[in-house]
Every structure is written in C-alpha cells, then in structure tokens.
Fold:
Amino acid sequence: MNKQTSFEIDRSKPVDSARKGDGSLGLARGSATPAEHELIVRNERFPREAMVPRHWHSGDPVATAWYNSVSASLPRGEAFFIDTLRLFRDDLPAELAREVKAFTTQEINHTREHVAFNRLVSDHGYNVESIDQGIQAMLALTEGRPKEFNLAITIALEHFAAIISRHLLQYPEYLDGADPVAAEVWRWHATEEIEHKGLVYDVWLHATRNWSAWKRYKTRAMIAALITKKYFGNRIRDAIGLLEQDGFTRKQAKRKLYAFLWWKPGMMRRMFVEWASILKPSFHPWQHDDRELIQKWESPYKDAVMPAE
Structure:
C-alpha cells in the first residue's frame, strides 16, 4: 500500500547535502558545530488545496493568532537573512560557503511555504498585510548599517527561531489538536531551523575573526537583547491585532495572549533561560546538541499525519 502524507519530497533531484566527504569546514576558533553535521535541503510542499480551519490550532483563536503572527513575519525576515549572508559568501572557506548555499535554499523553501500558508490565513478574512509591512519597516532601519551589524541581527533571530523550534519538536503538546497540515508546516520548518542553527554564527566567527573578543561579544550581545525584545514585542502586538479581528477587545486579547505565552502552555516562560544563553561570552548555538530532534520529525511525525491507504 502507498503511504500518503501531507508533504512530499521532490524526488526529481537528489536531496542536497551541503557537505561532501569529510573535509574541514575551515571554521574560525570557537565553533561548536559538530564535525559530522550537515545541512539537508528537503524540498517539501504542503497541499495548496487544503483549506485549514480559521482557528486551525485546536479551535483556539489565541493559539492560532500567535502562530499566524509569527508566520506572517517570516517571508520578509528570511529574505533578509539570505541577503545578509550573500555579502559574506565570497570570503568564506569553500565548505562553509557550501553550507551557506544549502541554508539559502532551505530558507527559500520556508518562504515559499509560509507565503502559501499566509495566503490561507488571509482567505479566512484576516488582514496580515500590515504585519508584513511592519517587518519591512523594521528591516528598513538596517539599511546603510555595516554588514556585520546585520549579521548580528540574523544571529539573534535565528537563535530565537531555533529555541522555538526545539520546543515544538521536543514537546509535541504545543501542537496537540492543531490541524494536521498546519502542524506539519511548523514541524518541517522547525526541523530545518534546528539543523542550520549554527550556520550564521559560524559565518560570524569567520567574518569577525580579526575583532577583539570584547568587541565581538559586546556587539552581538547588545544587538541580541535589542532585536529579540523588538521582534517579540511586535509579534505580541500583531497577535493582539489578529485577536481584535476575531472580535476580542484589546484588553481581552492582551490578557488571553499573555496567559497563553507565559502561563499555559507558557512557551515564553519555559524558553527564557535558553534564550538568555546568547548573552554568554562563550555562546554557540551547538552547545546544546539537539540533532536527535531532526530524526524525530523524519520518522514518526510524517508517518502519522495521514493514515496509509
């Protein structure tokens, strides 16, 4: 019998692995990326004909609003990551440059799927265009900045994404009751966020290899604190706006959203210590090795999305 899932890998081309053989990545001192780790491009597409419910997460408008707010911010943000890394690619060791190419392809695929997902959200009557415009306005502030400054911004946002991704895969209850197609979008994306979580930081180590330890730490830690606060604050603002479109008053929306984020299930509360690790002078994303979560998604989750025919 054929097994059908909500996603299919494009088998017209071999799965792309960023590392060939066992050559050195040529990483700068301080990298904790496992020597045998590689980035794999999974060209996955969720069914466009599937109209997920308006409140696709457990029939809960609050949970749905939070994830919709994050999804609406992703396409333009991922384009920023790609554009930022492109400026460093020609100066990288060959193996690390290949990793950047794989990272770029992963992010292009994420953008494609979240654009489609956001279109479904819009089809349910939500106005998410203002969220995209807000991201555009925030990123406009980076224009004219040194490329290392924008790289530090990317580190901060990739760190935030990696922690959310770890929680989504490590604690399946976060997506319990969610529409199967929508949940699979998030699990697939989370898998690749974990897989490439150290790439931007390794580019940073190479790009700033001639900086003093203090300058390197001060720059990335200060930007991490500022950008994460701004990004998180904007996601709350936008989720509240989506709840207002569902008929909640602003006071009701804020109370319910804060309870969701900080009390039950309380992802933000449970993530705080992990996020704060970026403020350590010795920080590297792969100091927390969670590669087993990649295998966790690739085996039971996909097989369980839809029953075998």
In short: Residues 53-305 form one domain. The chain has one domain: 53-305. The longest helix spans residues 213-245.
